[in-house]
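Hi there. Long-time user, first ticket. I'm pasting a complex I've been working with (about 660 residues overall). I'd like to know whether the download I got is complete or cut off, because the file seemed smaller than I expected. Thanks.
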Amino acid sequence: MQSRAPHGSLFGQEGLDAILMGSAFATCAVLMHGDGVYQLIRDQRSSGTSTRDYSVSYGALGDYGVETVFCVQEDLTERRLVVDDLVIPVTVIDRAAVASLLNDYNTILDF
Amino acid sequence: MQSRAPHGSLFGQEGLDAILMGSAFATCAVLMHGDGVYQLIRDQRSSGTSTRDYSVSYGALGDYGVETVFCVQEDLTERRLVVDDLVIPVTVIDRAAVASLLNDYNTILDF
Amino acid sequence: MRFAITVHGGPYTSQSSHSALNFAKAVLHEGHDLYRVFFYHDGVYNGSEIMAPPQDEIDLYGEWRQLALDHELDLVVCIASALRRGVINPTEAERYEKSAANLGKPFTISGLGQLIDAALSADRLVTFRV
Amino acid sequence: MRFAITVHGGPYTSQSSHSALNFAKAVLHEGHDLYRVFFYHDGVYNGSEIMAPPQDEIDLYGEWRQLALDHELDLVVCIASALRRGVINPTEAERYEKSAANLGKPFTISGLGQLIDAALSADRLVTFRV
Amino acid sequence: MILHTVNKPPSHAALSDCLAVMASDDLMLLIEDGVYCLHEVSGDSRVHVLTPDLEARGLWDRLPAELTAVDYAGFVGLCTRVDKIKTWA
Amino acid sequence: MILHTVNKPPSHAALSDCLAVMASDDLMLLIEDGVYCLHEVSGDSRVHVLTPDLEARGLWDRLPAELTAVDYAGFVGLCTRVDKIKTWA
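Hi, the file is complete. Here it is re-exported in full:
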């Protein structure tokens, strides 16, 4: 579960590394929660900040066997984002559905 | 200007160190802003967390020549605090008065 | 029951190291197993043996070290997190031609697979975040 | 005009180091003086010469080092912040009986008075926070 | 059944994010700076508070009656009562 | 006259804390994750936005017309126009 904006801190980038590693050993899904959805915005160009643009690596999740990337509709709306703004296809759920999603998995890795 | 809660991070403790050092060289005042007011709550006992209780060091500010410790009334009210809850006497100002306070000093050190 | 712990915060900077240490002691005191403590993000700084905290503050590296020796704990710093932050053992110091190494025993450097293994092998994974 | 910069964030972990470096370059490029860069809190980790970031990422220590050499900058890490976080030079390593030192040149270790001096001596102090 | 830990004061999104997705039989534990949230969750019997963090912040005498104080052993005990732990920060 | 920098997204208190104390002739610069606040301050001509941070976050084409984009040289220039800098984080 990713909850931080990219570039400002390394949590998103190191969180994605953990997701990619986890998918090699178990069935994984990713929930981009709250500010975490910012990580998926298209056309990030970080040459001017000297940080790494790792958003393209989300495109590789499918190859790693990650089933689904979830976003919360309310998180998108509050941030004036729509699914077409994002670098990969996502499954949009209502905030009310997050509780049951968390129940569907054995372990939660938080970043 | 202190803006973080104590114990959870080291910003408050290291910020106070900077205030004490600064008072040796220049006229200083301290504004405990937002969550920063939590640093002044009485009777902090940190033996169970293994963090340092530095709140008592605020009592030494007067000896170091720090003129005034300011708190914002709205910050206190939102946190259900009154001046009697605090470890030192403070000067309470309205949020509307912060702008002119910032203008009264040459440099602002933020923590 | 078998526990695993992940620590994300740097020592002293964030309370997460203190909390994780106190939680680890309670896990062991309550008679549970502690499968591994995995240090990720700034948590890897906990493994530096060259920290010199003030005498009246807790020695976090020393506390982790003693707890691990007393209970044969597996303390692992993530290699990717550690390399970029300058927490390295003599092997990595030589490989990357660095002037010194600072990772203290019994901390070891390993990959993210150790985090996934801990998450899958333990009954409960508890993360201490910044 | 004379600038001073304070950095609170750890390298890579927080963007504040990247931002401070880019800002410092712009200050110099625009023809201003840069009186001092003072590293406080986790900012002191910027002075570690044993960081080994991935090859395709910026080498923050190396960039600070080169900028300081090119422009005779004063890069100071706060001694109190640095000691507790394990960023030390050979003198401190000996004093505290530590196995290694990791502070790279031209970074120096000094007291908080250097921050106050920078705040008073510079026309503008800019802080890069976490 | 999930144990949710919250370690940030009410000025951060952590508490409201947590409350928005917490199930009725889930448990919450306020730790670190999360203990400043105690007024915001008064009356919610799902909520526990870590005593050492409460004492460190001078809030020991402010605990609302409906909340349960636990020490680190109690924190471990809460973990054994649930299936997994979700952290909000 | 003060330059206020904000480096956190709207989910944090930094922006609202800043707006609450900003004088009418002060300036604001959104940097780092602060650039996500651009919708919240649209129409406020005191506000500047750091271009490299905007580009890094994929927001370059979303800048409201009333806001001014500046590069790092422009950031330095803003510092010379004010008496001091206040940072919100």
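A couple of notes from our side: Chain F touches chain B at residues 2, 13, 17, 20-23, 26, 83-87, 89 (CB under 8 Å). The radius of gyration of chain F is 12 Å.
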